[in-house]
Amino acid sequence: MVYISRSGAETEALGRRLAAALAPGAVVAFRGGLGMGKTAFTRGLARGLGYEGRVTSPTFTIVNEYEGSGPPLFHFDMYRLEDEGDLFDIGWEDYLDRGGVCAVEWSERAEEALPEDAVVVSFARCPEDENWRAITVEGVGPV
Fold this sequence. Notes:
Layout: E1 2-5, H1 8-21, E2 27-31, H2 38-48, E3 63-66, E4 73-77, H3 84-89, H4 92-97, E5 101-105, E6 119-125, E7 133-138
Parallel strand pairs: 2-5, 2-6, 4-5
Antiparallel strand pairs: 1-7, 3-4, 6-7
């Protein structure tokens, strides 16, 4: 399903709604370039899972963990990794086994490590307005 977001707040709200549809152990694979709203979307996921603190991109730390009142959120950024082998080196399987939700930015770099039932969220600029985003959510019902 494709959703149009006209602001960071709308992108965050969509992430929050998706969180309500996810079961513990879910993997959310993000696709889209720099500045497309992936971190805002992840902030919404975190809010939807009960975490109210600061949410930042884990570009230099590779993974950030957020624990709230619901399942934990593990926010990965694959931008600096070479391939899925690097992901396993940082304990990917351990994170999957912890029963949280894994949100993976630049998931294309670790395609082979993702489960077949991963929810895929793709970000693109809208032709109507380059500040708007077309966010496609696949692998789960409407959110």
